Amino acid sequence: MKSFSAILKKSGRFTFFEIPFDASKVFDIKKGTIRVFGTINNLEFREKLTSRGNGKYILMANKMLQKRVGFVGSDLEIDVEMDLDKVALHNSGNRISLDVPKCKIDILQAIRERSTIRQFTDRKVEKKKIQILLESGFCAPNAKGKRPCHFIVSDDSAFLHKIADDSNHKTFKTATCCIVVCGDKNVEGINKFLIEDCSAATQNILLSAYGLGVGSAWIGLLKTCSAYEYIISCFSLPEKIIPVNLIALGYPDEEKPILPRYDSSKVHWNHW
Ligand SMILES: Cc1cc2nc3c(=O)[nH]c(=O)nc-3n(C[C@H](O)[C@H](O)[C@H](O)COP(=O)(O)O)c2cc1C
User: What's the gap in Å between 134 CA and the centre of ligand 1?
Assistant: First the structure.
């Protein structure tokens, strides 16, 4: 993490600050977009750098970022903490090698065969597998590449039983683990796609669980249900964090038939 002071300034149509080092050298990025994250005056940001040639970079502040840091048009001194956003190395030239865990199920087979499991054995899901599920969650598409999702993992039986108190959440009576998929409304900036982002991550986790032989259930979390406030207070969630979905996990103690689900009456080619 690099720490430095800079001046946020407006020049013509653009508002930006200069990076006081050669970001390509410091972050060891030979070509392509350099994506960074960190804080500006203790407020989180996730942006890309713009090259001005000769190892000079600037960070352009969009309207939302300007508003958040209180920029009103005149030069503003800012304290910046910045690091390379490794997970966001999207450009093929910058792809970092990750250890990709394998499972024996083809992706299309997993999509067709997965179904909600609501009865689990008492066998705990291994931490290694949960780690793989979280990685799958982080791989989901998300609006503007802002990756606003956070994941709270709990295998605490008191927590699971408390969640199961709600009649819609009975699945947690036997689940051995819960992932609370949360969204950071500040990172997203405008909160608009937070539900979609968290839901894409949720589905990735469900499919990966199936691939690993772990049963799962997507449990919606309405703001009006008792679990919603309970989760916020139980984990002392910061104001910016919204719990969006729950995922119940465990080893299946029930078998679900695999049914064909394609419904041609709901498919509309070129016209309704
Ligand atoms: C947004 C959403 C909310 C859900 N909420 C609940 C819930 O509160 N309780 C529950 O038992 N299942 C819940 N489910 C699981 C659905 O009931 C389940 O996916 C649906 O019956 C289809 O079955 P399948 O997953 O086996 O295909 C939810 C699923 C989604 C996508």
Answer: 20
Query: Do the beta carbons of residue 155 and residue 176 sit within 8 Å?
Result: yes
d(CA 249, CA 253): 12
Domains and CATH numbers, the chain: 2-94 (2.40.30.100), 107-250 (3.40.109.10)
CA-closest residue to ligand 1 atom 20 = 116
Q: What is the pLDDT along the chain (272 residues), one digit of tens a residue?
A: 999 999 999 999 999 999 999 999 999 998 888 999 999 998 888 899 999 999 999 999 999 899 999 999 999 999 999 999 877 665 445 555 456 788 889 999 999 999 999 999 999 999 999 999 999 999 999 998 889 999 999 999 999 999 999 999 999 999 999 999 999 998 866 678 999 999 999 999 999 999 999 999 999 999 999 999 999 999 999 999 999 999 999 999 999 999 999 999 999 999 99
Nearest C-alpha to atom 3 of ligand 1 is from which residue?
220
Name, in order, each residue with C-beta under 8 angstroms of 132's C-beta and a sequence gap of 6 or more: 101, 208, 212
Cα(117) to ligand 1 centroid in Å equals: 10
Residue 227 Cα to ligand 1 middle (Å): 16
Terminal Cα-to-Cα distance of the chain (whole angstroms): 53
